[in-house]
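Hi,

I'm pasting everything inline rather than attaching a file, because the server keeps stripping attachments. The sequence lines come first, and each chain or strand is labelled.
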Amino acid sequence: MIAVIDYGAGNIFSVKNALAFLGFEGKLTGNAADIRTADHLILPGVGAFPDAMRMLAERGLIEAIRTEAAAGKPLLGICLGMQILFERGFEFGETQGLGLIDGFVDKLEPPPGENLKIPHMGWDSMEVVNPTPVSRTVTNGDMVYFVHSYKAVTPRENISLLACYGQEVPALVFRGNVYGAQFHPEKSGDVGLNILRSFAEL
Amino acid sequence: MLAKRIIPCLDVKDGKVVKGVNFLELKDVGDPVACAVEYNRQGADEVVFLDIMASHEGRGTMVDVVRRTAEKVFIPLTVGGGIRTADDFHDLLRAGADKVSVNSAAVVNPSILSEAAYRFGNQCVVIAIDGKRVGTDDDPDSPRYGKSKFHVFTEGGRRDSGLDVVRWARKAESLGAGEILLTSMDTDGTKAGFDLEMLNAVCEAVSIPVIASGGGGSLESFVEVFEETNADAALAASIFHYGEYEVNDVKAALRAAHVPVR
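And the predicted assembly:
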């Protein structure tokens, strides 16, 4: 069973639908016991960094996620769920994240002179920086669907897939069994579904 | 590089696609779910359902269409038509929509935009604007002095709200809209090309993405809208409905013109 962690943020139904379409059992749950018994964890999220951490804390899920991730259980954060995997976020002030991947999350700023719209919204291409089991079906130039105004800042060794939007935008990050997708694999057509399948097969 | 998006739109009434869709190999051409699946196969970057009946009673039908589509189609889904309250957003988002577009209700009650943005995030709030030329801007203080003046029309184009399209677009952005779906009533249905003048006026005034709508009738019109304006996406209905072109034909034409597409 794949626990899709429901803590009051985001369109979690799309993640569950995509897993069902691929033939995997996803369970929407906000329960620490389910997080412990699940084979895989998916941490979705739409909204703001501090709210997401507060809602996880209120539901008593932070320790359960950290413990299971440390024990080697595959974890995939999506969008804001990816951002809170890092140590710190700077959306509405500084907030502690889950600290599962080194780095922090900061505002996406268009470089001076470049007229780029924020949020970074739509289909954008990625390049493979470090091949991982989850990125195994991805080739350079594959496009996925992004919607975000903040980005991860993390050492190169933690980046599997990289997008570029006037600056480097880590698209898939990882450390060991912990993965984070800045894009929405559940909304990225076949490219995204293949990434979800690779994760579910870990 | 961020791709320019091509978005087919399906008009839905009582759970059925209104205009007969001319897909080969598709048995139920009136089924919006089957049509969305087909557009996904053709390479659509997003699908829009427009509820043209949009009465309170019809709402449940649309929620069901969205729910069934979201089980099979894994690209962004936008739903519009008859949205009156932020609670309408809630029902559609829960069913699997990624964005909800609001038109007349926002003109009457602009706070629906800020309320929906606060509750669900800017990324899912689309302001749909139906614009039409109403003469020339004769205000010497206006940055558009001497150029066309566009008004926002509501109630499916029946009522002139008196609002200026560019000012309304800017206000909607400031209230929390995350995207603008800009339909030209002058070019809609003509297949004569998108309304480049109105698109440029709005694109220059806002910093959120703008979807061009109305007039996309040839492959050239799609190339033109991305070469001549800063639009982020183009929406069309009949060019795809009647099977004249597949979404991928439009993308091939764009690719040949060096417009970035998926």
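Residues 2-200 of chain A form a domain with the Rossmann fold fold (CATH 3.40.50.880).

If the labels don't parse on your end, tell me and I'll reformat.
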